[in-house]
Every structure is written in structure tokens, then in C-alpha cells.
């Protein structure tokens, strides 16, 4: 059988897609373009309304391939069916089966059983955690790989539907994660990016088995050169954790989603932290990891966000001077506590506030990027440049894959996966241009 899989959404979804491809390959399936496949699979995202729209558009696009090509089956997996289940089969007759996040390991069984019947396979609540021994076929030939250290979330932020799609927080054992990282290093992976819905909650469900700091210290003994981590909730930061992070061999890159800085909005969001505490956490990270790159995300237009509350957020961004920042407008999510709250900003007001946040951050980032001019930095070569003016592109320790900018440079003698010292000679917004040093 030939299978074509489209992966949507975040890196955590990408891991799921690669695991499904690995399971299908072990069962004898071959990857193929949509126009040549026997079975079409789309692994969906349903985090916010724009993600759901993209998921449905992709399903309909694959349905057109199914109608005109050799494909006999269309399977929808991931967050969308986990959240909406049988509704998808009723509303999208082109779909033959849906498979939620909790039972992605059943993908082979579902594909092999499709014989004209329409199926709904899902878990409630999700419970699947993949082991290091699970087969995995990576989607791209790049020198980095994502490793999911846990699944689900217990925080209960009022705007977020993740618990409905991913279930309660569940951590993988440290030894199992270590085995996966060792195997990826043996395959030539140069950077491992640790991800989960709530990374700093790692180990809280496994009493006595170690926390996130212990995991990082254990992974520091593996041969993979770069270890990066994403999604650090500020409410989980404490001095013991910072001390472990300072000792661990991990990149000095902190992804700390603050979401807001007004105490009233933070309470309404149920973030479990205040503006003052977040300032202390940021100062703690900067003291423990001098020179670290600090990234955050913020959410504007949340119910009850007054002009004064928004100005408080802007002032905090000015004060903290993040290196990177992503801004999102509030999306009302069915079934979340925030969906019943009054005072949601209009789309126009939310968009204007997002523009002001981005404008503020761009100015700050420009100043911080300019400080890199003339500096020599280590760059991991990702692959051929997407800009035809250069031969290669890569990233510094302060640039996370698929999130931040890249470094463009020319050198006919390099290859993906190599580390090279580069002198930064130009700043183009969030992108950098460099000259490799003679070797």
C-alpha cells in the first residue's frame, strides 16, 4: 500500500505524524505523493479557529485527490477528531475514518480494516505515550528532531482546549527519553528539541522519578551536540530548577510563554502567576544562564482586557526586552471557561493590539539583533538556502528551528548537519547574513 500523509500544526503533532509513518512503514506501507497514494492521511490541528480552518481545507483538498486519483481511503487523525469525533464523519462524507490523539498507535489497524466501512476510533481521555522503541520515519532530512517528553496538560488555562484534545499530563520515563535521544544521535541528528504541552510539569506525575532539571542533566550525558527545550510555563519555575538548568548541557534558549502581564487578566486566564513573579522568573533565568536568548508569546483581546490592561502588557514587553516574541489574538474555544466570559475585544481592536505588540517587539528585536554585527557565532547548517542569493542556511543557538529566523551564508564546501563558525555581517529583520570563517 502507498500512503500520503500531511502533518499540520505544532512540533508535537509532527512527532505524532512521524510515529504513524513509522508504524505504517513497518507494516509495509510506502510513502507516496497524493496523486499516487492508495490511502490519504491528514494529521490535524484544532488549537484555535485558524488551525481548524486549515485542517478542514486540507481534508477537502485531499478529498479532491481521492475523487480523481487512485486513492481509495481518506483518514483524519489528531486533534480535530479527538475534539469533534463522529461529527466529522457526519459533516464530511468524504472521510472514511477518524482517529484521535489517544490511539494513534492504531493507525495500521485502521488503514488495513478500511473496506468501505466508515469508522470512528478515538480515546476518551487520551492515554497513549510512545516508547523509544516505537518506529519513526522523520518527515524532513534536517539535522534536528523533536522529542516529545510528555503528553497532555493539567494547568487548566481558561482559554485553552488542549486538555480536551490531549488529556491529563503524562510523562515518559527519563531512561526511555534518553534511549530515544541516543538513537537519534546515532542517526546523525545534531539537535534535539524537547517538546510537550507543559514542559516544566515533566515528572510531576511520576513521584520520585525526577523533574525536568533531572531529565536535562541525564540528557547532558548523551552525544547529541545541541539540546533545546520549548514551552516553559513561568508558574513552574523555582530556584532548584534554575540551579539544575545552569549545570545542564543545554542551549541557552528560554521559551517562556507569559501570555499577558496584567494581574487581572492573568487571574482570569488562570495562569497561576503574577506580573511581579514573572519579572522575578525572567531575572532568575538571566542570572542562571547569562546571555540566554529569551522568547515569549502573548495573547491579546482576551475577555476583560481593557485599554489599561493592554498598556500594562506593552510596558512589560518594553521592560523585559525579549529577544523573540509571538503575538496571537484571542480565539473563543468551545467548552473552555473563557468562552462564557464577557468583554471579549472586537476583532478589529484585537488586531490593532496585536499590531502594536509586534511593532514594539520589532523595534526591541532590531536593537538586539544589531548587537550581533561583527560577532562570530556557531551555526548549525540546516540545508540549502531558500534565498537564491545564498548557498546555505543555518541557525545559531538563539534560533529555534521553524520558529525564529535563520543565518544565510555562502560556502561551497559545507553540508547539512555541520557546525561552522560564522561572522555576522548583516541583519535583515529577524534574519542574519554571515561569512563562514576560513578553515
Could you explain the architecture of this structure?
The protein has 439 residues and is of the alpha/beta class. The protein folds into three domains: 2-121, Methylthiotransferase, N-terminal domain (Rossmann fold, 3-Layer(aba) Sandwich); 144-370, pyruvate-formate lyase- activating enzyme (Alpha-Beta Horseshoe); 376-436, Nucleic acid-binding proteins (OB fold (Dihydrolipoamide Acetyltransferase, E2P), Beta Barrel), CATH 2.40.50. Helices cover 34% and strands 21% of the residues. It has helices spanning 11-26, 49-68, 79-84, 86-91, 107-113, 162-166, 174-186, 212-219, 239-247, 263-269, 275-288, 307-320, 347-370; strands at residues 2-7, 30-31, 39-44, 73-78, 97-99, 119-121, 144-148, 150-151, 170-171, 191-195, 226-229, 253-255, 293-300, 324-329, 376-384, 392-395, 407-409, 419-428, 431-436. The strands form five sheets. A six-stranded parallel sheet has the order 2-1-3-4-5-6, with helices on both faces. Helix 8 (212-219) links the parallel strand 10 and strand 11 (226-229). Helix 7 (174-186) runs parallel beside helix 8, helix 8 runs parallel beside helix 9 and helix 12 runs parallel beside helix 13 (347-370). The longest helix has 24 residues, at 347-370. The termini are far apart. The relative contact order is 0.08.
Number of strands: 19
Amino-to-carboxy terminus distance: 48 Å
The helical percent reads 25-40%
CATH architecture of the largest domain: Alpha-Beta Horseshoe
Identify low-pLDDT runs: none
Give average pLDDT, whole number: 93
The CATH class of the largest domain turns out to be: Alpha Beta
Could you say what the CATH topology of the largest domain is called? pyruvate-formate lyase- activating enzyme
Strand order of the largest sheet: 2-1-3-4-5-6
Largest sheet: 6 strands, parallel
Distinct helical segment count: 13
Q: Quaternary state, please?
A: single chain
